[in-house]
Amino acid sequence: MQLGLVALAMIILSSMGHSDVLKLSKARRQTRVSTEGPPSCPKGCDRCSEYNGCIKCKPKLFIFLERNDIRQIGVCLPSCPVGYYGTRNPEDNNRCTQCKIDNCEACFNRNFCTKCKEGLYSHSRR
């Protein structure tokens, strides 16, 4: 019953020339999803989203996903922060990947620890 009333109201509004309101709200939603290139994107970013930050970085930069509560915000960096290592991919974004080696504070890649947690020493870089 309620669905029928909503549909009837939309038909009446569109026949009265209020269809521009519906088009405007749809256009507003689409612009929030992604914005292409500068000037609205942060420095180093080729493509970005109003809500998720950078989606694609310029060449040679790494995309790092910062956590903000349940959201992830993309940021372009020249190198990855401590605890992450850079993975280069010429066909896609260069990414910062979290180091997951046990007791490792910093790593060069997924198998090579460069700094152990305090009080521990490296054995074969693992």
TrEMBL record:
<dbReference type="InterPro" id="IPR009030">
    <property type="entry name" value="Growth_fac_rcpt_cys_sf"/>
</dbReference>
<feature type="domain" description="R-spondin Fu-CRD">
    <location>
        <begin position="43"/>
        <end position="124"/>
    </location>
</feature>
<dbReference type="InterPro" id="IPR006212">
    <property type="entry name" value="Furin_repeat"/>
</dbReference>
<dbReference type="GO" id="GO:0005576">
    <property type="term" value="C:extracellular region"/>
</dbReference>
<keyword id="KW-0964">Secreted</keyword>
<keyword id="KW-0732">Signal</keyword>
<protein>
    <submittedName>
        <fullName>R-spondin homolog</fullName>
    </submittedName>
</protein>
<keyword id="KW-0325">Glycoprotein</keyword>
<dbReference type="InterPro" id="IPR043601">
    <property type="entry name" value="Rspo_Fu-CRD_dom"/>
</dbReference>
<dbReference type="InterPro" id="IPR051514">
    <property type="entry name" value="R-spondin"/>
</dbReference>
<feature type="signal peptide">
    <location>
        <begin position="1"/>
        <end position="19"/>
    </location>
</feature>
<keyword id="KW-1015">Disulfide bond</keyword>
<dbReference type="Pfam" id="PF15913">
    <property type="entry name" value="Furin-like_2"/>
</dbReference>
